[in-house]
From TrEMBL:
Pfam families: SBP_bac_1. SUPFAM superfamilies: Periplasmic binding protein-like II (SSF53850). It comes from Streptomyces nitrosporeus. The keyword Signal applies. Residues 1-29 form the signal peptide. It comes from the Bacteria. This is Extracellular solute-binding protein. Keywords: Signal.
Length: 435
């Protein structure tokens, strides 16, 4: 089970969130700041409704035992979350605190002056400043300012592989791009698809673009784009990334039918666990997905490693991409900002981190390493935590880092690139023109 926008290892709920707007009648009653608490009022906190909510509810119950201002947790079904939050933030009954993904997911609220800038608070408060991994705090920021406090587990993208196939064909986990190309050739010659890819879902293709751009040009290239400069798509590293993707496709790295393979219904994971594909670039939730679909494979033959280095690239090979975590942000209109921040500070506690571990998540707190031995797979948990802990930069998934007006055409253009319906040069021009 994965936290945040992923439920039971699947990322499909992410797109459902863009569905029809939820009727608001009756659902917003009692939301927002008020004086309904027994002593000092109420803080309303919106959270994405999935299996991880029990961890947040336990934190709320604990906080309420000693706080005069009580937190009321409102669990919103995942498919309705984005639309309900948007509607609520434009109403008199907006939540005091709300769950988000950082980046583009909060930019409209930042631009409208609706969020509390937490930068100064974090710098002055040791609990917040030292409580979380630096790359995670930075990943949730906008224009160098902090608007969110981490509140769920990390989800870096990792390179998963079938250990049995690698052993049978004498292949080592690729550390360099040259290693990866040799592995592609070896598995192709053996009649095995080198990489599983759920092309019909579009977003799995995005991960290749994210890592390649980071390795080739460094995180600064996308950061420029995220900050609103669409000319950043014209950076030479973007073209080189698109050209490298085309080379992979032309070389048969993903097989011939990847555009009809899905992830949400288990297509790509099944190719990996059945030995029909050797590798799979996917978020860390792939482990729990495989554990659910093919438990023996997950326990015995599922391997994982970092994305390889790319010769001549300027990006640090320790950088990671994916979903750093989810965040709590505070509404600037809240009557209880100080109390809301006190609640946010409990996210750095050992008790909260342990609850995340017990739920199968990897906390983003600085103290998490010592707790991971109780994880369902301690080695995987330790490797994942170490990967993020050592990362100088953790780039948020592009389609979450960007506002919808850019994220939607981005997925469309990447899909066209992978399908061979557009050239790398045309991809660049299309993204530069996106408005």
């Amino acid at each position: 089970m994965r936290s945040g926008i992923f439920t039971q290892g699947s990322r499909t709920t992410r797109w459902a969130a863009a569905g029809a707007a939820l009727a608001m009648a009756g659902m917003l009653a009692g939301c927002g700041s008020g004086d309904s608490g027994s002593d000092g009022g109420t803080i309303t906190a919106y959270v994405y409704g999935d299996d991880a909510v029990k961890v947040q509810q336990a934190a709320v119950d604990s906080f309420n035992k000693t706080s005069k201002v009580k937190v009321k947790l409102v669990s919103v079904p995942g498919t309705d979350y984005v639309n309900k939050l948007r509607s609520a933030m434009g109403s008199p009954n907006a939540p005091d605190v709300f769950f988000n993904w950082g980046g583009g997911s909060i930019k409209p609220y930042v631009d409208a002056g609706q969020l509390v800038d937490l930068t100064g608070t974090v710098k002055k408060d040791a609990t917040l400043k030292e409580g979380f991994l630096p790359s995670i705090m930075e990943a949730g920021s906008l224009d160098g300012k902090i608007y969110g406090v981490p509140m769920r587990g990390m989800q870096p993208v990792m390179l998963f592989y079938n250990k049995a196939l690698f052993e049978k064909h004498g292949v080592e986990a690729p550390k360099t791009w040259e290693d990866l190309q040799k592995a592609i050739t070896t598995f192709k010659d053996a009649g095995i698809t080198p990489f599983a890819l759920g092309g019909s879902d579009k977003w799995p293709e995005l991960m290749w673009m994210e890592y390649l751009l980071d390795r080739i040009g460094g995180p600064e290239v996308f950061r420029k784009i995220q900050n609103g400069d669409t000319e950043g798509w014209g950076d030479p590293a973007v073209l080189k990334t698109a050209q490298t993707v085309k080379e992979l496709i032309d070389d048969g790295a993903f097989g011939k039918n990847f555009n009809s393979v899905d992830y949400g219904n288990g297509g790509a994971p099944t190719l990996l666990n059945k030995g029909k594909a050797a590798m799979h670039l996917m978020g860390s939730w792939e482990y729990s997905t495989q554990l659910g679909k093919a438990p023996e494979f997950a326990k015995k033959d599922l391997g994982w490693t970092a994305f390889p280095t790319v010769a001549g690239g300027t990006g640090d090979p320790a950088n990671v991409v994916g979903n750093p975590t989810n965040y709590w942000s505070v509404n600037a209109r809240s009557d209880h900002k100080e109390e809301a921040i006190e609640f946010l500070k409990t996210m750095a506690s050992e008790t909260y981190a342990k609850a995340l571990v017990d739920n199968g998540d990897i906390p983003t707190t600085s103290n998490a390493a010592s707790m991971l031995s109780s994880s369902p797979n301690p080695q995987f948990a330790q490797d994942q935590y170490s990967l993020v802990q050592k990362a100088p930069s953790f780039t948020l998934s592009w389609d979450q880092a960007l506002e919808a007006q850019y994220a939607t055409p981005l997925l469309t253009e990447i899909s066209k690139l992978f399908a061979g319906k557009t050239t790398p040069e045309q991809f660049v021009e299309a993204m530069k023109a996106a408005k």
